Amino acid sequence: MSISSPLSSLIFDNHFIGNLPADPVTDNTRRQVLEACYSYIEPTKVNAPRLVAYSKEVAELLDISEQDCESALFTQVFSGNTLLDGMKPYAQCYGGHQFGNWAGQLGDGRAINLGEVINQHGQHHTLQLKGSGATPYSRTADGLAVLRSSVREFLCSEAMFHLGVPTTRALSLVTTGEHVVRDMFYDGRPKEEPGAIVCRVAPSFLRFGSYEIFSARGDIDTLRQLVDFTLRTEFPHLGAPCVDTYLSWFSEVCDRTADMIVHWMRVGFVHGVMNTDNMSILGLTIDYGPYGWLEDYDPDWTPNTTDATGRRYRFGNQAQIAQWNLFQLANAIYPLIEQAEPLQKILSDYAERYTEKWQAMRASKLGLSIYSEELQQSLHKILQLTETDMTIFYRNLADVPCEQSDLSDDDLIAPLIDAYYDVDTLTAEIKAEIYAWLRQYQQCVRQEGIKDKMRRITMNKVNPKYVLRNYLAQLAIDKAEQNDFSMVNQLLELFRHPYAEQKEMEHYAVKRPDWARNRAGCSMLSCSS
Ligand code: AMP
Ligand code: MG
Hints:
single chain; alpha+beta; 17 helices; binds adenosine monophosphate; binds magnesium ion
């Protein structure tokens, strides 16, 4: 039974600021913040906040009732206009490697943590407003966020959660009633866009870059305080801080990161900006920017226009980039360990463990328990012969009968036809390769003795029917920008059950329409947000 308390009686236990050094300067000037983990800063008040949507599951996690979510106070609090008793807002200091280069201090340039709530189960959750004004870490930017990127972050956080992918959550989305100027494609055509604020929720928003900044500055004392704090609050099962505990911690971070990437690969998610400041120490997907969902299966695809040349953050490269990022984290905590070998060993174990986990996942996407390299290699090939929708292909593969060995080629491929962007491109040669693969697949299924009915049930729990296709988010944004928030709320509802058939929602499970192929926001996204 969960009991909800009124919004005004949420219990805050601000352990981050209670245990770590603060920036002594309290005015809101942009600066390098030394020997401190955060700066006190209040959200900037906004003109005319309006609630667009809230997640009832996240509200429940925080013991906030739906009635409270619909109150005027809720909108005031989660637009940053009102602070509740116990809130003590602050912005965190962190650094990061961006696109492979050390970028120095970054920090919460437009995120303000309101405080840490303890719920009735004793769990901690940090509430963080994104887009609520400038902080000492804003550098040359405005600290604000636009509606389009806020809709994307809000919907995707919740969709990812229900898809079973480790992620930060989103409690609320409000518009501010103010305009924010953005040059979406950095081409000298700035435009006014509606401003918005998302309240993100996670046990902790610490990133790899949170540790890197102190190490880069040679501030080992603060580094140790932060690491020990992280261990005590987020990894208490590892024991008291000491060299061995630091190593087990690093190993666990590697493991959690590997799990997260396996899930991204399973559902076809491309983060788009895997900089070390966007890597959560808890192995959660964090910072939804120019992310995208793979539509036609293309391992080289990146949604981020800023990444278009190097394709560093392409779909098929995410596991390697995660390892590169973990290597930076290893460097950052090295001063506390002073032995390279065990850190290197853990990093190479990451690669091995990732491979094992990913192979097991690839088998389960096919409803199999045994991984077959041959079957998977040929699958990887046939998915790229012609534009093939990854989500529809895996989902519908569950409907390909495997118990009967005497099916005609046409009957065999029939359930998959919807996955092909242009059936006219299915030449006789391509079809022959697909049939051959399907027969190989049938054989593997039969060898494992799996019945079609059972296979369909297990596969449909691994392969979602609905993913937040880029064009779907864009359609919701187009409406939201006209003050029509119905589609945001409809998608929020849809993604509460992404594995369920939801027959009446089938139009959201179809492949990307042609108009969306080259439209901004649908296939090309920039970091401008
Ligand atoms: P991102 O690439 O969105 O993860 O952001 C990288 C860094 O830039 C972080 O320190 C952000 O806080 C900061 N940043 C991004 N957008 C803004 C903005 N509009 N105002 C202030 N800081 C920002
Ligand atoms: Mg970021």
